[in-house]
Fold this sequence. Notes:
Its cofactor is Zn(2+). Monomer. The chain has 347 residues and is α/β, with parallel strands linked by helices. The protein has a single domain, classed as Metal-dependent hydrolases (TIM Barrel, Alpha-Beta Barrel). 53% of the residues lie in helices and 14% in strands. It has helices spanning 6-14, 30-39, 44-50, 57-70, 74-90, 112-134, 152-164, 184-196, 211-220, 233-242, 250-255, 267-272, 291-302, 306-315, 324-346; strands spanning 17-23, 93-100, 139-147, 170-176, 200-205, 224-227, 246-248, 277-279. The chain has an eight-stranded parallel beta sheet with strand order 1-2-3-4-5-6-7-8. The longest helix has 23 residues, at 112-134. The protein is globular. The two termini are 36 Å apart. Zinc ion (ZN) is lined by residues 21, 23, 176, 204, 226, 282.
Amino acid sequence: MQHYCEEELKFCQALPKIELHAHLNGSLRDATIRKLAIKRQLDPSLTKLIEKGDRTLSECFKLFDVIHQITTDHETITGIASEVVEDFAADNVRYLELRTTPKTRSEHGMTKRSYTEAVLKGMQEAQGRQRASKGRSIAVRLLLSIDRREDAAAALETVQLAAELQSRGVVGIDLSGNPTLGQWSTWEPALQEARRQGLKITLHAAEVYNPAETEAMLHFRPDRLGHMCCLDERLEALHYSTGIPVELCLSSNIITESVASYPEHHFHPFYSAGHPVILCTDDSGVFSTSLSKEFAIAAQAFQFSRLQLWQISEAAIDHTFLNEEEKQDLRKEFENARLKLQAEKCS
Ligand SMILES: CNc1ncnc2c1ncn2[C@@H]1O[C@H](COP(=O)(O)O)[C@@H](O)[C@H]1O
Ligand SMILES: [Zn+2]
């Protein structure tokens, strides 16, 4: 069943957009996954796992482990980073905050640093190609993710790397991975260090019901939170009182069965209460979506007008990890896009 209307999708594609929650290895094209699976001679039973369909949250994490088996060397990492940036740009995303987990792979001579440099290279290559062909490019920044399977030392290594690469476009730290694994106390010291180093922080929170952890995360006061699907009334009130912006990913939450249906998604109560919300894709490849589709789904599920869609899109600028001057540039870009669309309508 299609959860959006084609006419609305066209409008959402024309809308300039901001993507703040996208995992690199979750955003791969189908064709790229198939090509890499052949190249790496992936076991056919694993290739089958990659084929699209509904997947529970635990199946998703198995799938990420399979994708990680085919995105192993520096050249591939650079290639997928470049492709993902291109895909977001083609969807009229004007600013992308991409996130990825730096990986160590001794068999490929890969360290967390060399992995991250390969990603930065791919991002720059895509931007360079766009500038050459169109005279302008999507703006991109990188967040480094700590995987919940990592220990305190690995988390700190990622934070130190992010701090060293701030001048190269790394703006923050994300905590993600299977929400049923690990303990908040393991990563908190590294996240405190990230804050001391001037990095911004976003946490995957309440993807499953874990009130003690969610409360600890709220007390930590990250700059943004992701998901917040499984809250009780007390935590919901606490979250509202903090005013921390929340990255919401409709398709991801429905497909992984964290939320029962689109109209019941917590995007709407947060939005209606005036709490800062940002529509995001999470894993556009794994969930066969795009940011335009997520906007079109929101339009249908919550009966948003086009003006409301525009306002939701533009408001995300305030919650980026950019400085004020950079945010101002994006606001100007949105204004120019608005004028251009109006002129096209009148002509
Ligand atoms: C579906 N909801 C989710 N919840 C939690 N973590 C998720 C996620 N989707 C993706 N990731 C995190 O991102 C990694 C893949 O991209 P990178 O290898 O880092 O580029 C996954 O292994 C997981 O750690
Ligand atoms: Zn995520």
